[in-house]
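Problem 12. The chain below contains 695 residues. Write out its predicted structure in token notation.
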Amino acid sequence: MPARLADRLNAGRQRRFIGRQAELQMFAEALANHESSFCVLFVHGPGGVGKSSLLGQFVHLCARHEVNACAIDARNIEAYPEAFLAALAMSMGLPAGASPVDAMLGRGGRHVLLIDTYERLAPLDDWLRDVLLPELPAGTIVVTAGRQPPAHAWRIDPGWQPLVRTLALRNLSPDEGRAYLAQRNIPEKERQTVLDFTHSYPLALSLVADLYDQRPNFHFRAEAASDIVKVLVEQLLQRVPGQVHQMALEACALVRVMTESLLAEMTGLENVNELFAWLRNLSFVDARPGGLFPHDLARDALVADLKWRNPDWYAELHRRARAYFMRRVEHGQSMEQQTALFDLVFLHRENPVVRPVFEWQASGRVLPGPMAAQDLPRLLDMVHRHEGAEARRHAEHWLAAQPEAAIVFRDAAGAPAGFALFLNMSALHAAELADDPALAAAATALQKTAPLRPGARVSYFRFWMAAGAYQQVSPIQSLIFINMVRHYLATPGLAYTLIPCADPEFWTPVFAYADLARLPDADFTSDGKHYGVFGHDWRAVPPLQWLELLGEREISMAPQVVQPPVAAERLLVLSQEEFDAAVAAALRGLARPDGLHDSALLRSRLVVQRAGAGSDDAERTAALRQLLLDTIEALHAAPKAIKLYRAIYHTYVQPAPTQEIAAELLDVPFSSYRRHLKSGIEQVAEMLWRREVGG
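Solution.
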């Protein structure tokens, strides 16, 4: 049995400690070398990342190397020199009033001074650097552990520069996290769920493992871990200076990367320079060239806490971020647009449907490029390997017929790592469509369910794959999906898109969430392999409305739901013949109070756009009535159409009791009146049709 309780405690800590091998090796080498490469080691990281545990291991290494170690926890002392020296003397076992510096010099040998919670001693930082530490024996190593990296003065002093080492602690590796859970006897089948929630963050791992120790037959569910989230948030934040700081932190947790302009948009504040600087100095927030981002666990804990505590504010922040990114998608170019699309998709990362099928580590910095002539053999080999000889033949034909439809993703050496072919079906002849089973089936399905208007475009994503992963989840697959969205937004006259999948069952949940319908009639077989096809009618739900729909679905979905809870409000897609008939019927009902209530035009694009998204039946009826009156009035402005205007006006706007009386009012024969009326209706319908199909 250990001689003291302290020995038993230390033995337990030793058994539980996992990982940090590189850090331990570095410190052991410093102890073994009398003139180590550093004299001061700053260990820093967010609360709960394991700084104190690592300092405990350093103390253990000192004992193994027979080096004098004294440890101070700054939480237990006041931040003034006398209190620090008294605490140091006590840790060395000196009598009250004794000088710890003199004791070190007198004892000889090497000394290690370890200071935990160093941020509490910020007022003493200058004194320690300029007064106390220079007086210590030359071989002394000082280790501090705190939330912040060293102050700037340590890094610019030419004397201290070569003697200072900085060590930023982050999460354990996935393997280390798995080893810790195995050591804590967490059931193997549940370990991955715990790792997904904790991101191998030491405190989170420990909290979850404690639940298994305390509760018999416990099964971890991330959505029910509110107590753990509360502890994590408290550890990470400690205290926030004010309400605007809390708002800034919540906004930063929600988005992929935070910039000053985005922070101003989400907080509604004009000047956010100081707020942005405050975020940047937080221990769990890192900076990259594009902006700031919190560590994964901090992000997840903050978002989970906000959703639970204030779901309305979460939804508002989500909408503000979405509006900002959508403007950049609409008006940005190339890299800016692709990055904004990644930012939009990132807002859906918590969704249980989207999260498993998107590689969030794909940076968005890899841009697609056009196909070069030397790419063709490699792309064809890619198709042959994954889809077979028949598919290769079709790929060779389509890449030659529409080379501009191919986008290629390249590895670091410039070689194709994946590609997609966004084929323009509308530009193909019937014979070409018939030769490819995929396009033949698609053409038949579209003719049956979604007949196209003249000039409308159908894009068939005929081939899409990564060189190694094919259509499985991968960074290349994620980039392909992002560029599909770019295609939706940037292609004029796009009416329909179709996506074939070798494993349609796998993609069904996320495609349903993304409002892509399963189209069994468009399925096909090639090289003995069956492909399921998904599609979207962009005439019914246009791209910007689609982005809004996905945003609202994300806000409204509970974590357990895997099917879209909000049905898309679809526009009514009419052929020109059906549209003309609807206009004629609407004109006949124009003068009656309820004459437009069942008009097919109420769900047409031009009426919905005029009334506004989310408008009700009364608002759309009013919008349709005004639209008809404005269009009729436009006839009055055209000298050649004045006869047509008068015929329509006295028939539908201020109708005469009978058409015969209307002809008398116009002072024309009845046959001429009928001819003018017919031409006027056709003219109004034509003017409205151009607006319907032209936007």
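Discussion. The longest helix spans residues 670-694. Students who got a different answer should revisit the alignment rule from Section 12.3.
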